[in-house]
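Narrative progress, year one. The postdoctoral researcher (J.K.) led the effort to move from monomer predictions toward full complexes, under supervision of the PI. The following entry was the first complex the group processed end to end, covering 527 residues in total.
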Amino acid sequence: MSPAASSEVAAAVADAHRREWAFVLAATVRVTGDIDTAEEAVQDAYASALSTWGPRGIPKNPGAWLTVAARRRALDMHRRAATERRALPKLLAPGDFGQGEPDRDGGVPDDRLRLIFTCSHPALAPEAQVALTLRLLCGLSTADVARAFLVPEPTMAARITRAKKKIAAARIPYRIPAASELRERLDGVLSVVYLVYTTGHTAPVGGSLMRRDLAERGHELARMLRVLLPDNGDIAGLLALILLTDARSAARLDEHREMVLMEHQDRSKWDQSAITEGLALLREALSLRPPSRFALLAAIAAVHDESTSWSGTDWQEIFGLYNLLLEKWPSPVVRLNRAIALGFAVGYAEGLAELDALGTEPMLARYPYLAAARADFLVRLGRFEEARGAFEEALILTENDTERRFLQARLSGLAG
Amino acid sequence: MSKYLILIFQDEAVARQAEGESISPGYQEFMQRRNGSLLSGAALHPASTATSIRRDGSGGFSVTDGPFAESKEVLGGYFLIEAADLDEALEIAKEVPAGVGVEVRPVRVVS
């Protein structure tokens, strides 16, 4: 290795942070048995990379270098803690220490799957699962995670600390679940990854429609899972869904950064390579019986992606897919989307009737898309006065500034 | 191995009816099957027989009739178990034929 310039080193460390954080941390938890010590050791390893990669050169395999450094640091800390004889609850029994020594090929075993399953353990609150995943798998700081979910940093810090304490005190295992429960547990993992993606795809609150950083993290997590379990159809389904949805993101905003509905999007801006990859993954996911929730959602996204125009959209197919989804995974949001598909497949009046029936659903009481969908169908039916009321309701409910401007423009554009 | 307390919750109205002298077949079967993990356990008299003691903050106590938290679901019994980790504890807890459900709490190691 030859000496490297400081700008090169900074870039290499930043790159290794993005690519290797989860791998290095997961391998270090093996040695420490607890997450906090491992995080500290990994942070130290990245810090020492910043100071040593300059004079000694950037290693060929930064992940392996960082893992060795973090584990050495962790062993130091472990020895010191042992002399203090602190009875810290551990993730792994003492007998498990050292099992993660370099394998036959001299590499480090990949423990990222264990870490993923620990972070999305059903005994943790859903928002804690997401926070831990972003923090431990993506290496985001607590401040970044707090920003992503628009909560004050101390609130997020408390949430993460509480979750880590529960992992240690209740002994949530650092293990890949047994085959018999793998599919169910994996569904929990995929839900967390999808939530990260959707929070980025359409930000629930704030100034911009999308939070690309979060959407990309969700995309990367799905890709990581695909690499770790390449033959798993459920993972293929989630990655397909993310690719087929994300393919349209460049067309969702116009040159003034205003929202464009799919109906009016410039379809030449859709990312064809993402669509091609997504469709191949979807075929794989659909060969699995029964198809997963994500595979069905991906199939719906695929119908849009493969349609060359809005008017040519196969709404019958989309309506049928929503019916399948509703059968196995009933939820108010699925019923809402099914009602919209019905409106385009059969008639606006029929769709509107279904939407009106959802008006008493408590879970949708604060959901702006119900009022927005009603407003849209009312406009298409020429019932402008009622549409006005529905737009006004949606405007009260949405907390995203871009969506608010969009709804305001449609309201102002109503005749009369 | 860690210790976990499984708290058994039941509907107060249903529990009152089911009050009997012997252990129900469902529990007998569970206790036989999980004999190796069970450290202790007990069924409790109804919550109406409970007495709660609260510290009043100035060195005294207030003693009241009834359980600590008033709700439809009451604590009806418990098992103290030993399990390798939370997954195993949850697996055992799912087998408890509890009327309403159970709560699983890790037992703290204090020296």
